[in-house]
Structure formats: structure tokens, C-alpha cells
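__Record contents__

***
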Amino acid sequence: RRPWPLSPRRLASPDDLTPALRQVVAGGLYLGYLRPGDALLSIRQTAQSVGLDHRAVAAAYHALAVEGLV
């Protein structure tokens, strides 16, 4: 399986991260780029690609997990 592709764009704040990740994951599932069980990028890889602290990414991943999206 190939890793989940997060578009490497910078985000203005951690508040933008959860909605951005939700859009990328949901869109990837809808369009067939992602399948249930596909791997996400690591927290640190995602943090580096979006230019935010890894703790913000961990919180966003957790929020998506609570929603059952990841």
C-alpha cells in the first residue's frame, strides 16, 4: 500500500489543520485515492509538510480518529 498523500501546503494556524486534513482524507476516500486501511503519513512528516508543530498534527489526527474518519 502506498502512503497517504497530503498536499504540502503551509497552514496559517493549527485551527486550520483539522478541517484541512478532514477534507484531504474524505476527498481521497471519495475519489478512490485512499482505501480503508491505507497508511497516513507520520505525525512528524505531516507536521513538516504543513509547517506546524507535531503536537497540533497529533491533536488533529486524534480528532479525526474520534470522528471515525481515520
Notes: The helical segments are 17-31, 43-50, 54-66. The longest helix spans residues 17-31.
